[in-house]
Amino acid sequence: MSKLSIYARARLAYSAFHGATESGTRTTVHDFPLDPDKELPTYDRHQLVKKCRLLRNNLGFVRRLFEVTARYSVGGGLIPYTATLDKTFNKAADSLFEKVATDKDLDVSGQHDFYSMLKPIVSDTACDGEVFALKVKEKGYYPHQLQLIASSSVDSGYGKTDFVEGVRYDPVRRPLEYRVMTTDGYYKKTEPNDYRANHVLHIFDRNRLGLRRGRPWIHHGVNSSIDIIDTIALEKQAFKLNSYFAGVITTPTGEHPDGMKANIPGRGKANNVSDSGAMRIYKKFFGGAAIPVLKDGEKFEFFGNKRDAASIADFFELLIRDISLGFGPHPEFSYSMIKSGGAPSRFVIDDAGWFFEDVARMAIASFCQPFREWVIANALADGSLRLGSDPDWKACRWRGPRKVTADKKYDGNLHIALLKAGLMTEEEYWSMFGMDAEVMRRKRVDEIAEDMAYCRLRGVPYGLFTQSAPGTPLVDEEIPPQV
Length: 483
Fold this sequence. Notes:
The protein is of the alpha+beta class. The protein has helices spanning 3-13, 36-39, 42-58, 60-73, 87-101, 118-128, 222-244, 309-327, 331-334, 342-382, 408-420, 426-431, 437-458, 462-465, and strands spanning 79-82, 130-138, 142-150, 167-169, 175-183, 189-196, 200-204, 249-251, 283-285, 289-291, 293-295, 396-399.
């Protein structure tokens, strides 16, 4: 046994937890900060954001991770329903919020209303790790506006300052102010603007204790994603290179042979090559491929690629699985479900559903609910909305998009059976389709009332109209009185 292995075993003996010991064959963790604030320095976070934006623009898998997350978590928007005990107030509050939320002047740039801005907010949060929204209220112009601010714009600036990564905190780490840097359109940052914390909505995933700023959701897989791009580019170049050269012509002087001049356009000589070894110009052959002309004794040889396409695909899948699992959904959901069967597919989709619900809850807690409270509070303050009998005016339920499913028939029959057995409420049932139970029940009652009225007008018994089972004998019945 070597001295090195004896020394390694001796070091292990000092610790009851072998994972805490160091080894010469593994990455050594030096000076790793235990304080979350110091774990990701400003420079490192900026580098991660830049790389994630590059990957979003150039790698389809990464782009799909961000876009699918936004699609299934917020869909066409998260819709609030006031949930106080005063139904009159609930209706008035919902009507007021809907008027504000559907106005594109809500966005200072005029590009989004409340519902349409949710997708870019979630997608950019997944990419950059965070998004900021500045609450703007100008007298005599518009009571509620939002200005969406990218992560890179919130910065401490240069020189000595009491801002930490663009945020000033109190002694217990509660944000007091946010510093927003503007640019001249290129890279030079101009004078900063400081805003009080209650004017700024900071949207990011607070999934760890002590986080002050958000971090890109694929920070663990940035290098693997770049490796995929680089490897694909190299394989493409190798394939093109092998396809470009049709062969080699060897002559004593390095000139084109007389018999080939008609087929090889260009000068008679391949190149005025000096003895210094300057690179030759390869002549095009039949409009596509090229043929190098070498002197006698020179050699032109390709390196053979011993890796087949299957091995490269397996390597990419290994990287993609790690990237996807660290991000959220299983790789079978975000990359490919071809190899999955029925039961595994349902598990993967159900697991992804939990992830999308977590993302929706993050958006509600850090953006949707604070914005709604701002709108309702302003309306109560200026008298455009009166407080109801229930003082808890903040009470609200949020409805998201329908749940993802791989088998609508199977899941639909299961949910209907649970509903009939009383093991599921109508609110739970309709929420899976992104609909409000109260609205759907009232729509159904209105439909029945309209059908009954029309049956009465046409002299058709309502019972005949509602016969649904084929082959069931029609039973004449008295038309019920109109209510």
